Amino acid sequence: MSAQANGEVVIETRGLAKRFGERQALKGVSFEAHRGELLAIIGPNGAGKTTLLSILAGIREPDGGSVSRPPGEIGWVPQQAALYRRLTVAENLRLFARLEGLSNADAAVEEMLEQTALGERRDDQVGTLSGGNQQRINIALGLLSRPAVLLLDEPSAGLDPRQRERLWEFVLALAGGGTTVIFSTHNIAEAERYGQRLLVLADGDALFDGTSGDLHAAAPEAGGRDFEQAFVAFLRDRGH
Amino acid sequence: MRWLFLKDLQILRRSPLVTVLLVLYPVAIAVLIGFALSRGPEKPRVAFLNEVPAGAPLVLGGAQFDLTGAKSELCSRLDCVPVSSEAQARQMVESGDALAALILPPDLVTRLESLGGLNPTQPTVRVLVNEEDPVKAGLVNDRIDSLVTQANLRISKEVSRISASYLTLLTRGGTFNLLGQTLDILGLRSSERILRGVRSELPADSSMGGALDKVIQFARLASQNLDQAQPLLTSIAHPIEVQKEVVSGSPPSLDAFAIAVAATVTLMFVTVLLVAGSLALEWEENAYPRLVRGLVGRTALLAEKVGLGVALSLAVTLLMLAGLSLFVDIHWGRLPAIVAAVLAGGAAFAAFGAAIGASAREVRASSLLAFMISLPIAFVSLVESGTVSPGLFDVIKVIRAVFPFDAALDAISGGLDASGPALGLPLLHLAILVVAYGLVARLALRRLA
To answer: Would you state the torsion angle of the CA atoms of residues B76, B78, B80, B85, taken in this order, to the nearest 10 degrees?
Structure first.
């Protein structure tokens, strides 16, 4: 397991552990992420991806280990859109901007509407928007406080290919602007394509931290097969 | 917290069904209660056959009875349907058009008048009944029994008054009309006085002296004892006098209590459902984790929901009371007490709703739970002592103490009517429940961490 240190470390964990009853969801997970990096967290169902992100976001407290967060906000985008469906796009943004305590909530709303290209839908109730557009608003809420780190939990789940493409264009632009983006996904191809680095979790263990090429190399029996097959072979070799 | 409050109001505004229910429900309750209070209980429909000759006066002891007024009084308590014959009355009862028929026979007045004479004959009225509907039959029997008892009482009083006047005439003397002739009655006292005069004129050794002394003594004793007969006759006319003493509770008027029940039921449903649903909605919209991630504290979120419930329940309850004031008199001079009661009751119901919403975390489940808990508690809280076994009533008292309905009902009763329960204790009880249910809700929220 190796971390690629490209630039300034903005978030770092050491030995994170979390237990839910009898189940050990995280078993001493350590990693770090750098400014402007796109870090993909992948793994089978129940691997601990959402638990890890919710601890990074400060929603859950770990039972053990530590998290070193950057000064200021960490943007958090839950898997399911955390939006009020009966409020309009602008009202949702304005509400959370005010709750964030932003000095100029209206300016922040306008900025997010521009960034999400949803200015024309500003007065539409969120419940009337497509899943993709709702997810863009969901991400925009996570960006309101201009966080140094943005956490995305399964951001493309339920989106059609076109919506996914537009979503990733948006996320890449954020990373290009210096925002560290940590996202979890079930879509291995998406992780390979957009994740500059991959963190593989299985049953609460961090099994791998490196690039997609490193992961391919770590599963030599996969041969020249595609990345998803290499990933499955990697997990199988390690008993998962 | 202010922004969350405004957000909830916006969501309510955009939820027309909920908002309409919030407005329509209290208005509907107000109208129903208002009609019930202003119309009173439904009067049983009774066929009324009056065979007494028209214009026949009822004279008892020289005083004339108001028969027209008596009939009006009777028909104010029964839905009288005039009929012209016994056959028609019988047909109405048999067909179910009337629950009963009341027949006043032609000789009713004559027989009534005979009660004040020397040859009394008992008057009778006839009642034909239809007992197909046991509830209504019971009602009509009770009404007719009550009316006949009242009529008997009034006649009995009149007969006693006439008897007393005869006794007075016998004792003190006076004039008496018999068959158009006016007779002078000497009376026992005058008789005694005359006899004493005669006795004083007799020689001391007269053989008539002893016999005359006996007659004088009889006249004196009879006069003295018959003087006591008048209060005795009065006591016969009212053999039992009821002296009621209130040893516990100072009940408000029935109207005020009915209004308080309506207001408390409205307050309970509106507040509990609204707060439970509103809090559960934060989970359904997946907003809760985002909110409590440093944007809003869990306690502040609960306070906001309770505040929302209190504000809206106050508005809705006052709206309902305003609607009711179209039908019944509401003492708006007691508005501060009413507002205090509604605020305290609303806060307790809101905290209760928050505990439900935080536990259920789903709008439908929390609404169902709120309804399933609230409705039986409202019924149980209206059970009176003495109507169930003591053991069961002890259980009911615990339920009343644990849930806000009973305390809110007491507070609103006291707020509406000065003769109702004192406000202090119910307000304290509600304050304790606010804290208790607030803690339950806070613990339920903590469960997510």
So the answer is: -130
The answer to whether the CB atoms of A86 and B293 lie below 8 A apart is no
Out of A84, A96, A100, name the one closest to residue B285 (CB).
A84
Judge whether A109 lies within some domain.
no
The candidate with the shortest Cα–Cα distance to B350, out of B320, B298, B308, B403, is B308
Q: What is the DSSP pairing of strand A180-185 with strand A38-42?
A: parallel
Residue at A177 is within a domain? no
The reply to whether A161 falls in a domain is no
Q: Where are the domains of chain B?
A: 2-38+253-446, 42-159, 177-234
Q: Is the dihedral of CA B67, B72, B75, B76 positive or negative?
A: negative
- Write the class of the CATH domain B42-159: alpha beta
Q: Where in the sequence is the domain holding A192, given as residue range(s)?
A: 1-35+43-71+182-240
Q: What is the pLDDT of residue A3?
A: 36
The domain tally of chain A equals 1
Of B15, B285, B293, the CB nearest to A83: B285
pLDDT value, residue B21? 77
Residues A154, A139 contacting (CB under 8 angstroms)? no
Chain A residues lying within 8 Å of B297, measured CB to CB: none
| B449 band by pLDDT with thresholds 50, 70 and 90 | very low
Nearest CA in chain A to B287: A82
